[in-house]
Input
Amino acid sequence: MRAKPILEVFSDGEWHRYTDVQILPNRYVSVNGNEPTPIEDYGDYRLTWTT
Output
C-alpha cells in the first residue's frame, strides 16, 4: 500500500486533520480537491504520511 499525506492545521485553538491532500510542486498543496495553495499559507501546520 502506498503512503498518503496527512495535513494537520492548527486554527481556532485546535488541530484540524485533512486526509484528502495532494502534494504539488513548489510547496503547493491541494486539500479536498480545492485550488492549490502554498503550504505556508496554512500557518501552523504538520505534514505527515500514513504507513
User: Anything to note?
Assistant: The chain has one domain: 5-49.
